[in-house]
Known about the structure:
The chain is built from 21 helices and 30 strands. By secondary structure, it is of the alpha/beta class. It folds into 2 domains: 21-506, ANL, N-terminal domain (Rossmann fold, 3-Layer(aba) Sandwich), CATH 3.40.50.12780; 527-652, GMP Synthetase, Chain A, domain 3 (2-Layer Sandwich). The strands form 8 sheets. Strands 12-11-8-6-7-14-15-23 form an 8-stranded mixed sheet, with helices on both faces. Strands 5-4-17-16-18-19-20 form a 7-stranded mixed sheet, sandwiched between helices. A hairpin with a 3-residue loop joins strand 28 and strand 29 (560-569). Helix 8 packs across helix 9 and helix 11 packs across helix 12 (314-326). It binds 5'-O-[(S)-butoxy(hydroxy)phosphoryl]adenosine (WT7). Residues 267, 314-315, 390-393, 415-420, 441, 502-504, 516, 519, 525, 528-530 line the site of 5'-O-[(S)-butoxy(hydroxy)phosphoryl]adenosine.
Amino acid sequence: MSEGHEIDNLLHEDRHFAPTRDFSAQAIAQPTLYQEAKDNRLEFWANQARYLDWAKPFTEILDWSNPPFAKWFADGELNVSYNCLDRHVEAGNGNRVAVYFEGEPGDSREITYAELTTQVKKAANVLISMGIKAGDRVAIYMPMIPEAVVAMQAVARIGAVHSVIFGGFSAESLSSRIEDAQAKLVITADGGYRKGKASALKPAVDAALSGGRCPSVDNVLVFKRTNQEVGWVEGRDVDFNLAMAEASDEHVAQAFPAEQPLFILYTSGTTGQPKGILHTSGGYLTQASYTHKNVFDLHPETDVYWCTADIGWITGHSYVAYGPLANGASQVIYEGTPETPDWGRWWSIVQKYGVSILYTAPTAIRSFMKMGSQVPNQYNLSTIRVLGSVGEPINPEAWMWYRKVIGGGHAPIVDTWWQTETGAIMISPLPGITSLKPGSAQIPLPGIEVEILDDEGAVLGRNHAGLLAITEPWPSMLRGIWGDPERFVETYWSKFEGVYFAGDGAKWDEDGDLWLLGRVDDVMNVSGHRLSTAEIESALVSHEFVAEAAVVGAKDETTGQAVVAFVILRQNQLEKAGSDADVSKILRDHVTKEIGPIARPRTIMVVAELPKTRSGKIMRRLLRDVAEDRPIGDVTTLADTAVMDIISGKVAAGASD
Ligand code: WT7
């Protein structure tokens, strides 16, 4: 196993929740799916793909002649946006609500499929009028409002490629992502509402493009959401609302090849440089819609579905912008934070719209648990019939609370394991079929093949912790890292011959259910969001005070992991730096500026030395022991075995933040 990975062999769960007969009787997913996929995996996927509307039907299913570069349904042609919008209107469902939008200040809008289709057609015409063509990259930096989905769909509709950048990322992060993708256009908003106030976005775009940076960008399309004052660059900035008002609402969607790039989404890896994960059209939409329908048991005529993820993350792509729309679902989009104006906000939304399927992250569930059941208990949550979890392992205690307090003691919970790279859900129970076990993501979906391997690549059986690998290609798999095919091969496909290395530890239990055991690489998971230790370290050492930095993810009750940084200060900066408390504040602010508030370290510890092996590698495992307040593990491979005594002595003396 990789350095520092803890194997949790103690997990043992006896509770099982079998599906009720009523649920199974009406369930979308049929038990035969498993057998069909087993009998002929590729034909199974082709059948799933045929739920989509193909302008030109495919005759090839998978081309795996040049692994790991896969092509799915390659000779087929389709339009992603047509599949998400027009076809529902043509089928007579134009009056179905596509989006129930709830703004944080309390404003709300219902948008039907017919209306959303018109909006996307207009936006597509706006993009065309600005010179955006198929294959061009468009950066999207927006709050969680329907126009964000309109923007994504419009880009997809004309065969261009979007790169959505989470609104919580800083101007620096925005700039490097725009630069890497060579985006021609940025779609943004003046701001959005968060925590009871208008929070600006446009200034970060202005800063990202300032000083001659990002010369690829010709225009910035600005949606007015808050009407706060914003800077305006004549000739570059375009008013989105005005452009939409003037745009034609006629646009015939043209078909593109199945492998037309659909989007790039940046995610953190083990180096300081984020990776632009590339997804394409036909296979991606196939698996996003297949999983959305079967995992959440979607009955599009009656369900109200709500995924709380922001469009800045993969979950907001596959399970807000694409999967639900491809399936003709009615979904809630909420702009703000869960605690605004109070911790009852989400539950008032569930009650108001009669939400029946809720998909969220364990970190949110744990925050609600902390606030107490009396808050959700004040609302009528009886419409809820399926609950989903994503982003990190859900601890059995949170699972039980979620089911009891939010799910009325009966709603099945689907714990869904997947990644930005996998594009869609890979491991999950199927409600109505699977007996549920709290804390386990259970089994791969029909059509997905995984193994747990040891460090040498040998297949492990039950009760042995190892590395999760995906052994067969899948339709929504990443097609590469933008501009860096070598890194793609090296990161995911070189650890074991011909199989995809996920970066997660896992084990099968005695019943053959799968448990995820966290990352085995230098990637942290904070509130279900992926952060790289190296990226934060390089942000820290870019500050003049810092000579060296080591970052670890330490266990945190609410956020899963928290960022803890150990820094050595430059000798000649010591006076300027002031007290440890000053340094801590300055450096935390610096990381926020360099990457964004999500990367802000919870704790910064100023130390004199870092524990290193004789070859100079930082031993993060030992730092994690300190950060988690545990006895220090084996130090025999340290170059200087006294270092840990000094560090833990200082920490015990209360030098942390
Ligand atoms: C990493 C992927 C997939 C969308 C959100 C995160 C962890 C994700 C689970 C789960 C245990 C999970 C893994 C994975 N993860 N879902 N249900 N149980 N761990 O996407 O930022 O690409 O992160 O999140 O460690 O590798 P991401």
